[in-house]
Design brief:
heterodimer, A: about 850 residues, mainly beta, 10-stranded mixed beta sheet, elongated, B: alpha+beta, 4-stranded antiparallel beta sheet, about 40% strand
Amino acid sequence: MCDAHKAGPAGEELSMKQKPSSLRRIAVTCVLAAACCLPLAAATISKLNDDVLAPLRGPAVARRILLNNVPLFEHGTAKIELEEFQVWAPGGKVIVSDGKSVQYLDPPPMRFFRGQVNGDPESFAYFSVDGKTGGIYGLVATRDGKFSVNAARRHLTPRDRNPDNVRGDEFDYFLTASDDTDEMPMTGQTWECGVERLPALPHVNKRILTEVDASGHPIIAQGITGTQSFAMAVEVETDDEFFANAGSSVSTATNYVTNLTGAVSTIYNRDLHTNVVLQNAHIYSGGPGTDPWVGTDQFQGLAELGNNYHSTHASLKRSAVVMLSGKDIPGGVAWEGTIGEGDLAGSLNGTATFSGAYAWCGGIGKLFGAQGLGSVPDPNATSNGTQFGMPGNGVPGAAGIQSYWPLAEYAHELGHNLAGHHTHCVVITAGEAAGTNHPTQLFVDMCFTGNVPTGQVGTGEVEGNGSHCAVGQNFTSAPTEKGTIMSYCHNVFVSGVPQSRFTFGQPAEVSHHELDDYMLNASGPLAPNGGDFNIATAVGTFTMSTITASSSVTANSTGNTASVTTTNGGTPTFAWTITGGTITSATNTNSITYTAGPSGNVVLRATAFKNFASFPIGGVGITDSKTVTIVTCVPPGISTQPQSVAVPTGTGVALSVGATGTPLNFQWFIGASGNTSNPIGGATAASVNVAPSSTTTYWVRVSNSCGTVDSAAATVTVQAIGAASFFLLSPCRVLDTRGGAPVPANGVMNLVVTGKCGVAAGATSAVVNVTVVSPAVAGLVTLYPGPVNTVKPVVSTINYTAGRTLANNARLTIGVDGSINIFNASGTPLDFLIDVAGYFK
Amino acid sequence: MKKLTVSKLVLFTIAGLLSAVSASAQTGPFQFFAVPPCRIVDTRNPNATNGGPIMGQGGQRDFAVRGNCGVPTSAKAVSLNVTITGATTTSFLTLWPSGGARPVVSTINFTQNDPALANGAIVGLSTNANDLSVFNSGGNVHVILDVTGYFQ
């Protein structure tokens, strides 16, 4: 049932002769499509509790919003951190022409948020909120999958006939888990399209910046975190065909333009540090023939767009004009390297026109006869298993080509205005290719084999032989690396999946090479005419210092301060958040006061937003954020001092200290208290085992970031065991636990034996018979000298089996304090007898 | 053939007489010195003078007591606890000063049904480097000796 068909006119090789010293280049994008089978995608849907999304419907003052406990099905609940970003420039209008009159409408009162899920830098969340209805639309992409939030009407009332009367709280919200199974194999593609012939351009300065917070997560904010941001003010044109594709609804058309521009801005912001700001959107609502656009292909369209704006909007400040045409034309075209320049007179396909920052995109809402505006894809989402991958397949329709084409085309053609070339026409050096997956690659991507046009034959090329740009590569096989937004890889399908992505290239990839062409020196002047790489207007620099605060604070302490400073700050807007404590001052200034929590860490995050009013067509801002982690502590104190002890030669003993405070660090030393010259390696716990060969003094220092305290010294006195003679006693039971406390399971009983049954003080050993009585389980007993903190040696005195009363004869070495220890190495308490027959002294 | 058998019997008898003479030569009185309990032999450990291997049927091992666990070279006898484990059959151990013939005594008797079993003993030490002999009558068995004091 699969049915491939070739689409779109073959592009032509075009070049523009302008003023003698100026050469303008034009770039063409074509699309290939095939009708194919589309299996139904399985989806899991659940209703969301109203509380989950409630923060998004709050007052329109919070720039940062936290959604807690978003239930992502079997993947647990998510914490979604969101920051607001602007799509419309201040003062921007929706200009609606119906052929008779013109209305200037305010942009839709939509708010846009983007952020991360559970702090994962590879996750992404996007939410838009309709300021009028409160209706919410959301996309959430995590490592576990993609989820969307959609509304369904809760109440059906007469008011629903007027969408303006619907409130957001009249919706139920549903979370849907999507999958990427909508893939079908496609074979037998043929395709041709022209592309301009371009020299490799010199690379200009900066690599993309990556800034991370204290946790190592990339910082997400409106504008660019860092020191430099750019902004482009875009004038969006449409036509009456687009209006028809939008269901002849001004709000549908406007919302789509807004969302599409927001998605483009997301790509440019992420990859190029550039905000794309929508300045005005032009909607033509009067029906067929009521717009000024009569061209029947993209070249005529671009020519008339330039002529129109040059003659009627010469004084309108703008970075670029983008046409989103609803004509069923599967291609787009744009002038290259024209941002920041004035118009230049020239001709295009024989039509006199003015070149400039104009981009023309066809097939928005209608392609190959399939009509309708699909939803705008999430440009950050992992789609079809590829980061920033384009969704859908090669099938015309909302789930297929239209699911990626409008965003891909808008971002692509605007990229040409920014001097971006097709990445299959940008050569890379052997050095740049080294260490990548493409050691022999000559170009950034290999998704195109165009015929060399007449008159454009270069060195090593033959006219018409398919050697243009990507020599010898076959576009019908998967590229080794999925293409960039500036590639033609959206025309290459593998199992129906377009082999392109919504990115200009990421730093780890060969395609990052192309970014170099964009990263322009923001401090340089904008060339008035014919200049090479003029990117959008640089809006300035802005940075915030790291947070100045004490690295540790006392638990529950009040009046702790933290502050930041800004450079080129003017009057930035500040916001602070805290975990592990409470902010007790206002949070909209550069310094705060806070109360520490009872334990753990205090984490402070400061965000500063600078609005640059100097931007020609309205405000654009840069946000900078910093995070600091502060240790909360309780000063240390000593509750129990280490105790002096006397032990026989060859005996180990455990010294311990009782301490209060949090956290607690210990270090034991040999010597007098306070003498730190002899630390004991590895002795960093509350107790330490020592086995001195001669009498030795020890002490311990207890510390944390709030303070330090030293223990008193404890002396371990080592006594040699002298010669002893045997003294006979009448047999006498010195221990019988039956009816009393048995020897605890896996525990020690300390027993003083001197002074009992006639055992004299100073006895070094007792001659005994030991008996285990009806033990519940098998085990063994170890008898060793006291005191109780003597380190137990690895020996055994009697081994026994379950249920068997058993005796053994032994000589028990007695501690200096006259006691012995009885260790029961079994899991149950043990009844134990000791009968003494004599002793040595 | 017959003469050779007689010759062997004679030699065996002479060895037994020598052993009896050696044991009766050890006298006292001695004084007792306690030590903190200390494991001096464990045949479950890697092969060594006081380690493995396991004792086999009819096998004899000579262990070094003096110089270890605080027992000086001047010690004449040792107070210890003999523990067996992993016995494969009913058997007994004999402990005696090394260098002499094995006396006809038993220090601990056990069966394969005993997971582990112990008995206390006082045994003389020879002046050999490996001063304490242990003999196992039958099967295989691990031997563990824990010292609690010595006489000199």
